[in-house]
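Researcher: Here's the sequence for the chain we discussed earlier.
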Amino acid sequence: MVQVGRQAMADRYAYVPCIGLFLIVAWGLGDALDKAAVPRFLPGVAALCLILALAAATLRDLTYWQNGVNLFTHAKVLAGRSDAHLEAALGDALVIAHRYNEAYEHYGEACTLLPRDAQCRYNMAEILFHRHQLRDALEQYQIALSLTDSKDMALQCLTNSGEILLQLADYQSAEKNLTAALQLDPNNDAALRLRQRVINFALLGDIHHIPE
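Model: Thanks. This is the structure I predict for it:
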């Protein structure tokens, strides 16, 4: 009756509504077989065959549900077309499996399909940061920051951008980003610590440049 999540249809939505139908089938079929004078062993054989068929189908499907990578790879095959949400979900599963390079490719595909999606940009930035590709990561963090409506994501983008700029020795830009992060969360430990490091490095740089 009410859609939950992005999917309009899902098998689990049928579980409760079908209880009444299953009761009707179970009791009604039993009465029908009694009236038709069907030998009593036949329903048992039919039930056993059904159980075996369902068990075989379950064993087949269990291979897809072992982990997120298998599940969403199979979902991509069934979809038969590019889908940004599937690409992002597969990327998430690959990150959990520590397969970051493959995850990056799928996040990139998700961003191609949804250019204004902040989450896939942020995910790409995180992997680039993990690879120590600082300038590329900084670019993706800034794009994610410009697209997001989430305070938490904005805070992370600003803090991580400040850390990257600190490593690149761009202290003025680093302080600007970290100050903006602290405006969102004045008590954020990471932003406070990084901003203090920026101030220390900037002061040290000024001392080194004092004319003799």
